[in-house]
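Quality-control log, excerpt.
Job 1 of 2 completed; input and output follow.
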Amino acid sequence: MTFRRALLGLAALLALCLPLRAETVVAGLSRDAINITANFVGSEILIFGAVSRDAPAPEGELEVIITVEGPTQPVAVRRKDRRFGIWVNTEAVEVDEAPSFYAVSTTGTFEDALSQVEDLRHHVSISRAIRAVGVGVEHPEDFTNALIRIRESEDLYQTIEGGVTLRNETLFDTSIRLPANLVEGDYRTRIFLTRGGQVLDVYEQDIAVRKVGLERFIYNLAHDRPLVYGILSLAIAIAAGWLASAVFRYIRA
């Protein structure tokens, strides 16, 4: 708690030092890099900041929306139906771009914080962050909704309404939980300041997520030298099988 208060105090000081404009965001992260090691079990980042303004706050509820977005990837989403007593794939949709991780945290409800027009323009909600064009099936939204449900169950997609704490319409902060199954890459953090559903200011900063140590060695070996990686994996499997067999024979003897 003391650490969080210190960060918020720093954000407030920075807000006072900046040139005054209408209402703008001054923000920072508790960390701007995350290392994935062999025993990585996830992480949590604190996102904090302050609102800088050159006049008394205007009328209307001030809202803060904070998003963290992982690298985007194409994803194949398949629908299964029961045919002749077994489950088989019947339809598939290729989603052009879907974030590998996406979290959105707000001061209140998302609908109150951002209008649909602004969401369409800035791609803030999870459904807007997924890009699926040219899909040749009926009701393509069924496939994107299925993708969202799957990744929500894996903690990769998170909607945290009321997760941002706003104090005196000036200082704000939130915590975002990053699961263990992260994809390596740059994670984009965005902070939106809104009134009446309209975006007043946007702040962006990246978080570098990288594999290090043994994880980095295995990743590089698998991608740069797949033949060596395959032979090494086969050798380890054979050695593990032989060792298990030897131990079993020793126990029975």
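Job 2 of 2 completed; input and output follow.
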Amino acid sequence: MRCNYCNVDIGDNNICPLCHKKVDENSAIQIKTEYPKKQAKRPLPLKVSPKNIYLIIAIIASIVSILICYLTPTTTLWCWFMVAVFAYGYLLIGNTIFSNSEIGTKIFLQGSCLIALGYIYEAIFKTTVATSYILPIVITFMIIVSSAMLTIFYKHNRSLFVSCCLMSLLGFLPIILYACKVTTTLVPPVISAVTGGSALILSLTFGFKKLKEQFEKVFHI
């Protein structure tokens, strides 16, 4: 019930706690709470997304590749590289194309996957291209793409300053590996180091204040 004088809910009592007047059941406002009827459960429609379609195709193609590789006379287990390529395609669709992750995270994830594919290729086909060529080339590409995205979206996505600087520092990794005699190829590591150094200098020159703000935000300094 509700008191006519105070307009407050008094429950089953006949005395209002505010005005201390007796409330007649005939004159009190009756409170009725009606809830909508519960709808019957409907079966969820089957969600067919590009990622799920690709996953089915990738699984079938991987199984076929493994069967062909092991049922035909060959000394190279190329099927496992194909499995890695299909897995990379799934990450490309699910974690990059149809993902709302930060642009820098997408670039770093794709670059890391491509470098991993390079080392898988090197292990399976017994080559030496991963450290000498794939690593510096992919890192250079990562720096160029992140710098381009920073130039385009720096007003709307300031966290790209941190991503661009971190990937620019990665540009020195191939030249360090060359100095440690892990690789004997000089040109790709030099290109990677020059690209990374240039991007780092430009980022610090034109966006030091924003970069400092982002580091304080990310690392809680």
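Post-run check on job 2. The mean pLDDT is 82.
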